[in-house]
């Protein structure tokens, strides 16, 4: 933990950042991080107090009463003092090590100051310490997520120097949720810019501006993933700089507007895709829910679906014609029936249902090799033989007909010949018998 804080915690020495060893200082009693305590050995009898009250013209509750007693997280601050350099005896102004107390909403906290104190750089020890002159705040969105805004002003009451606390808008994204599927061609492109609008009671929403010309918009960029949580303060801006951190109460640049500060304004978090293609996709939608008290939820709802199917195509058969010299000219016959061929391709389609529940295809892709079945030709034979010529005298060979009976004379002649032959045969047989 000490190494982490040393990396993320800034310090002040002529505007130069130096390293803190916060836990080591806590262990020797220099950094106060505990609950209210009475003066003990080594304590000066003077306290720094944290109080959930405003000291504006109209005093009011600066925390949400419904959250009283709940953890407001950890804050970090250091103080500017004057003291006697124990080594040189010179009276010098110095900055204290960081104080990192856990605080609770609507509950005051008192921290005892020591009679002797090292400076923030741990290069000198001071005695005869003056009253604190100023408070300097630090938040980073991860270790110190800025649950409260602390004033730089101190208010002296008895033996305690009070620092007024104001509940800060919750800038945590508690969870990101993905509902539906992401198109494969959009993987790695789901970069989201999250920003705040503010709304004053009875007025329209407008983009939040910090009043700082260099960082006018409270916006952070992140890659959307399911189940992520983070603080907005920890996010970099579009240009990669951690602009949000520079808008925190530690810098005095970020004005905190919510219903508990008496300003009658509240935050609205919005989110949008940076990639133009993703932003234009009609099947994606970013929904933001939550509030500036409980934190936020960002859901990416996708209506995109995919389905596998078989794309079938019919291949027509060809007709093959063959001449047949044995078949009379003008005649045709099918000697092989044609069979249609086919091509079957496995496909994958991406689609979504629009507001009218109509299917809108986004993309179709081949999902395998095409299986082809060849068509079978139809074979048709046609005749080429000429018809036989008809002889002119065919009518003279017509069989005569008997006028009365209508029986063909050819028939009578045949019958007579048959009778004659039969008689001759019988006569020969008899002669043979007599001999």
Oligomer: single chain
Main beta-sheet annotation: 5 strands, mixed
What does the radius of gyration come to? 52 Å
Which regions have little confidence, pLDDT < 50, spanning 5+ residues? 1-34, 425-435
Strand content: 35-45%
Cα(first) to Cα(last) distance is 156 Å
Secondary-structure-based class equals mainly beta
Mean pLDDT: 78
- Total of DSSP H or I helical runs spanning 4+ residues: 4
Categorize the overall geometry: rod-shaped
Can you tag this structure with a few keywords?
rod-shaped; 435 residues; mainly beta
Précis, in short:
With 435 residues, this protein is mostly beta strands. It is 10% helix and 39% strand.
Account of the protein in words:
The protein is mainly beta and 435 residues long. It contains four helices and 27 strands. Strand 19 and strand 20 form a beta hairpin. The protein is rod-shaped and about 155 Å long.
